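Help!! Second protein's tokens look totally different from the first
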Amino acid sequence: MNSSTSNSHAVQRIVITGGTGYIGYALLHKIRELFMDSLSPVAIVRASSDITRLQRLLDYPSEHDPVIICDLQDVESLVRGVKDADIVVHLAAEMDFFPKNKENLLSVNVDGTRNLLEACACEAESSKRNIRFVYVSSTEAIGTTDGVSKADESHALNPDSYYGYTKVLAESVVEEYRQRLDTVIVRPTGVFGPDERFFFLELMQMVAKGFTVVLPSPMTGRTCLTHIDDIVNGILACATHPKAPGNTYNLCTDEAVSGKALVQTVADVLQCPRPIFSLPPSVGGVLIRLVAPIMNMGKRRVFMYHPKTVSDSMAYREYSNAKIRRELGFKPKYTMLEGVEETCKYELEVGTIKRSTIPPAIKRCIDLAAVVLFAISQTMGRRHRHAD
């Protein structure tokens, strides 16, 4: 296909899957706020989705219904959803790092992507127009890095989660359609920002409750997390820049930071105690395993309270954004820690998170417990070394 979308209309129709998700809604909001003179947004959603907020956001004069009910397993419904589309951004995915139902992840993330690609290809061929297809993958497809250099787009794909594995498979499906569509693959890192309600909210809650006074591991591994504003800007660049089609881009902040530095920054903004010491990962993993059934009760997805998250805190996830900077002019608005500070202040302002209100007596008990745990961990470590 040609390297740019072609349409006689001045305003291009951009169809976005996953519009009720955190990134999808933020992307639609940005388009609605700043790009209505050039982009006409449409959201494809599941029948089970709560679309109340989307309908309010997309309440504008249009020839098309701005919210369309589709099923990623039903190609016919998807053909209706992408009719007259110039750009399709595929965000919808099942994100679960510890899935109980792996078949569901495969069905949604791989088969669903193939079905949407086929629907777009059929629309492009029947209308004799180019359609740009932006597949939002993840740096989870790359997996961990060596701790020395940042992984660029040529890095081998070695996912260490099943979620990442499904992203690798889906990317290979996208590659199959390069001759029929103007495809772009973009790999964002983990995302955080105001109103995020998964990983980062849980981290702030842990810090606010004093749970991170003792870290479950030294958390020396550096990782990239990217602010939602930068994720949205990067995806928009992939959707509109003429050089994007046919390429794959990492989408991330400039520099990774250690998990410990991340926790310390959150603690400082929330005016909570900083970590006093850290446990050996083997000990921390055991403790997390013990408390996980209680802390994860009622949660649909598990992340923070899982032994693998403890071991992963020692791994490196450092990625290069040099290509998207060079070719598409992307420039992050936030460093990782600047974004963390801004997000914490926002959540304090809206009342989602409270500054530390732990009474002094309780704080002293926490400190004492930390010292005891430290002594136990040191004893266990010495015994382990003697056993070796």
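Here's the second one for comparison:
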Amino acid sequence: MERKHFETCLSGAVQLRHLSNNLETLLKRDFLKLLPLELSFYLLKWLDPQTLLTCCLVSKQWNKVISARTEVWQTACKNSGWQIDDSVQDALHWRKVYLKAILRMKQLEDHEAFETSSLIGHSARVHALYCKDGLLCTGLDDLSAKLWDVSTGQCVYGIQTHTCAAVKFDEQKLVTGSFDNTVACWEWSSKARTQHFRGHTGAGGLPFFKGFYSY
């Protein structure tokens, strides 16, 4: 009687193990393999970017499929509010763009996104800034403007001007808008004022004027 009970228990354990192994196979079905690819891609498009990255960790197959779909990562970028060029059909490119942006946002949150440096040489308050091609122009309260090389921190040019409310420049010229309601054009090389415009009723701002400076 005891032997029969033991065999019944043993048989039950074997059956449970067999059932467990088969249930695991039945319950853990990979829909990326079972569904048509078009349907799988359609479903993936509705996942948020963070979930997509998590899905890439499920298996090599999932990572390969998800990473290879241009539409998935383009949609992820669009859903995050970024403007993209739809003509670029390179899935790895868009995944790198997304990952780089995520890293950048984290750096911004942690205040680690930018390196800071100081430009030494101002003797008064800075009212105006304009940066272009690694150069920074500053308009000061001491009737001067300076052009700086951002990479070295060195002052390239310094010009005596009026009190600057706005500044813009190119390789040859500097254009300034002043609190005295005038706009002036200056030459870097000679430090001379070449043109002077009056008639504003407020501090001179500087929209783009063809012929004075270029971007």
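Reply: Different proteins will give different token patterns, so don't panic. The two ends are 97 Å apart (CA to CA).
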